[in-house]
């Protein structure tokens, strides 16, 4: 529960999860291609000049891999209707957008995650670009020769060779792909959740509960609410309603746009109606702002918290564009003009 308007993440107030303390600098913005085709160099420039952060080392390899898999490279500025923290990379035949997530606040060593953009937020695909590439080439390597897409290995180029040696899965003695990925590549939300569901199918509720709890360890997916939301579902399934309620309420302390589902789905388990939404709406009023300042909160932190709350509210209906101006204004008032420009940028 966001009592007092602050939820701690990694030792910092909740609002500070959203804006990254960037140094002031003048940025000359250029218009990025808004056509169905956008060059790979556009994305590297966009990350540097608009998102004002360091591009992942193997971003070009990732884009080449996605293109090889049949996805269409889209302009990084084609962000209408998307969560404003996303940097679009590609769109697949179903219309799903793969993107980088530009955490406005992140430890210096944390790279931008790869996500799938959804109406109510994002789904984490991989914690880093390298992790995503590593998984893709392993999954290609385990296919038989008729199904394998050799072009994926070529697209991964030197990055792929650095991350994985062809044939290593077969030589590992591990028969299950998911097990190999978890041991050798990294922890992925979809694999963990699939593992839990497999335990349920086998009637092993204890292992399902243990895996669900493992999912929520803070070092695995810092800043993401999804592990806690899923664990609440697991607890509810085995009849632990009180624990499920607590887990769901814990999930709602993290950004709602990282729940991996609708806000209402988690709020129902938490046994909350609209009181959380109403509470946040109060916090983002001028009265709420002045109340926080009277309590001794620094003005900069007040507006950063407000930006985080506005992102939460936008995620409920997925109406991101309705909140852009207010979110950007919060960052501007906090002395973060680069973040404000990034939030507002559209082709």
UniProtKB/TrEMBL annotation:
InterPro entries: PAB (IPR045287)
Record protein name field: Cyclin delta-3
Upper lineage: Eukaryota, Viridiplantae, Streptophyta, Embryophyta, Tracheophyta
């Amino acid at each position: 529960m966001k009592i007092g308007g602050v939820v701690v993440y990694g030792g910092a107030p909740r609002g500070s999860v959203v804006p990254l303390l960037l140094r002031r600098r003048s940025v000359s913005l250029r218009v990025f291609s808004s056509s169905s085709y956008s060059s790979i160099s556009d994305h590297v420039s966009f990350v540097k000049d608009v998102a004002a952060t360091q591009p992942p080392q193997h971003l070009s390899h990732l884009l080449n891999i996605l293109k090889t898999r049949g996805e269409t490279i889209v302009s990084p500025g084609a962000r209408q209707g998307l969560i404003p923290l996303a940097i679009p990379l590609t769109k697949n035949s179903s219309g799903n957008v793969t993107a980088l997530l530009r955490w406005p606040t992140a430890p210096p060593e944390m790279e931008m995650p790869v996500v799938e953009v959804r109406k109510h937020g994002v789904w984490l695909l991989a914690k880093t670009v390298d992790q995503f590439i590593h998984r893709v080439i392993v999954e290609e390597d385990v296919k038989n020769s008729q199904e394998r897409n050799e072009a994926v290995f070529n697209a991964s180029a030197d990055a792929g060779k650095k991350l994985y040696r062809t044939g290593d899965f077969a030589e590992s003695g591990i028969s299950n792909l998911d097990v190999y990925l978890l041991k050798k590549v990294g922890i992925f939300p979809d694999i963990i959740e699939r593992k839990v569901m497999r335990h349920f199918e086998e009637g092993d509720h204890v292992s399902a509960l243990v895996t669900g709890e493992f999912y929520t360890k803070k070092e695995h997916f810092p800043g993401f609410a999804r592990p806690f939301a899923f664990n609440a579902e697991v607890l509810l399934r085995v009849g632990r309603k009180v624990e499920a309620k607590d887990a769901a309420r814990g999930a709602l302390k993290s950004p709602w746009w990282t729940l991996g589902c609708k806000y209402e789905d988690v709020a129902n388990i938490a046994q909350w109606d609209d009181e959380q939404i109403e509470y946040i709406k109060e916090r983002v009023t001028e009265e709420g702002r002045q109340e926080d300042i009277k309590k001794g909160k620094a003005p900069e932190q007040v507006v950063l918290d407000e930006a985080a709350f506005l992102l939460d509210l936008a995620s409920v209906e997925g109406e991101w564009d309705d909140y852009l101006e207010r979110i950007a204004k919060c960052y501007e008032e906090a002395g973060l003009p680069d973040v404000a420009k990034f939030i507002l940028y559209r082709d």
